[in-house]
Amino acid sequence: MKAKAHRNTTLGNLTLFLPGFLIFAIAVVVPFFIGLRVALTNWDGISQTMDYVGFRNFRLIAGSSEFRAALNNSLYFAILITVANNVLSLAIALGLNNAFKGRGITRSAFFFPTCLSTVLAAFIWNFLFRDVFSELWGVKSMLGNMDTVIPGIVIIALWNSVGINIVIYLAGLTSIPRDLYEAAIVDGAGAWQKFRKITVPMLMPAFTVCVTMTLVSGLKEFATTMAATGGGPGHSSEMISINIYKNLYSYYQAGYGQAVALVFVVLLAVGGGLLTRILRGREVDV
Fold first, then answer.
1. Distance (Å, rounded) from C-alpha 216 to C-alpha 49?
2. Separation between Cα atoms, residue 69 and residue 276, nearest integer Å
3. How many CA atoms lie within 13 A of 197 on its CB side?
4. What secondary structure does DSSP assign to the chain, as a single string?
5. Domain range summary for the chain, segments of one domain joined by +
6. N or C: which end of the chain has fewer CB within 10 A?
7. pLDDT tens digit string along 248-266?
8. Cis before residue 233, ω within 30 degrees of 0?
9. Taking the model in full, what pTM does it have?
10. Quick check: 218 and 82 in contact, CB under 8 A?
């Protein structure tokens, strides 16, 4: 009877596991190996034939200054948006967690930009930078300057995405037991001590989610930049994703573009995994 029950349990677990595994295999594993096959060729993305070139595309990546510049742009953008988004969203969430008149509509106002598409957000802010701010204050558009274009894109992405992290941090704040704060007040703790000793440790799970999600999303940035600048001026805002797109569809170097995409996927997987592991370890420590 025990053996039969064990077999039934195993079969039930496999039944639950199999659909998810099949979806993962079809959506991730199979495309990865198809992409690897293309990356080992000189295919232009159009012709019916492709010649095997081995690891030549990967050697080209190793010596490519364009790849390094695009990777630096992606890292710069990802770090800026991760720090700005999490600091701002946590500060707003702390404010919105207090009771005040009009709190509901204020929360909705902060979340509303998240409902807009990234392309629409880019068009709105492109208009503001180019036509409104320049007319009001006589400043040149941040998106037209090689030194300020990435911070300008960060502003657009921040406005368009900060609402998601606000919701996550708010959920974490509302789940913190009030008795912890009451006990801290009795012990004479001030606002900073309560924040550092209670709020931050209790918010670590939310912090892990928000930081990882924002960083990975920042590294994959494509739509906002493509709509706002197209990677310009020059190549000053060309992210890795735009570099891949141009190689695939503008330069007709599908083999090389696919190789860049595979390298980028591996870097994302390793970086995201390490970051999650570090932050999860911090959750255990506090």
1. 35
2. 26
3. 13
4. -HHHHHHHHHHHHHHHHHHHHHHHIIIIIHHHHHHHHHHTB---SSSS---B-TTHHHHHHHT-HHHHHHHHHHHHHHHHHHHHHHHHHHHHHHHHTS--TTHHHHHHHHHGGGGS-HHHHHHHHHHIIIIIHHHHH-PPPGGG-TTTHHHHHHHHHHHHHHHHHHHHHHHHHHTS-HHHHHHHHHTT--HHHHIIIIIHHHTHHHHHHHHHHHHHHHHT--HHHHHHTTT-STTTT--HHHHHHHHHHTS--HHHHHHHHHHHHHHHHHHHHHHHHHHHHHHHH-
5. 66-285
6. N
7. 999 999 999 999 999 999 9
8. yes
9. 0.89
10. yes
- Residue tagged 């704040």 (tokens): 173
User: d(Cα 144, Cα 232) in Å, to the nearest integer?
Assistant: 8
From the CB of residue 8, how many other CB atoms can be counted at a distance below 10 Å?
10
The Cα–Cα gap between 62 and 64 comes to 6
Question: Hey, what are 39's tokens?
Answer: 């990356």
Q: Give the position of tokens 């912090």.
A: 207
List the one residue out of 271, 257, 220 whose CA is nearest residue 45.
Answer: 257
Average pLDDT, the chain: 90
Judging by beta carbons within 10 Å of its beta carbon (0-12, 13-18, 19+), is residue 181 exposed, middle or buried? middle
Q: What angle do CA 27, 32, 37 make, to 5 degrees?
A: 135
Matching residue, tokens 């639950």: 16
Tell me the pLDDT tens digit for each residue of 135-170: 888 888 899 999 999 999 999 999 999 999 999 999
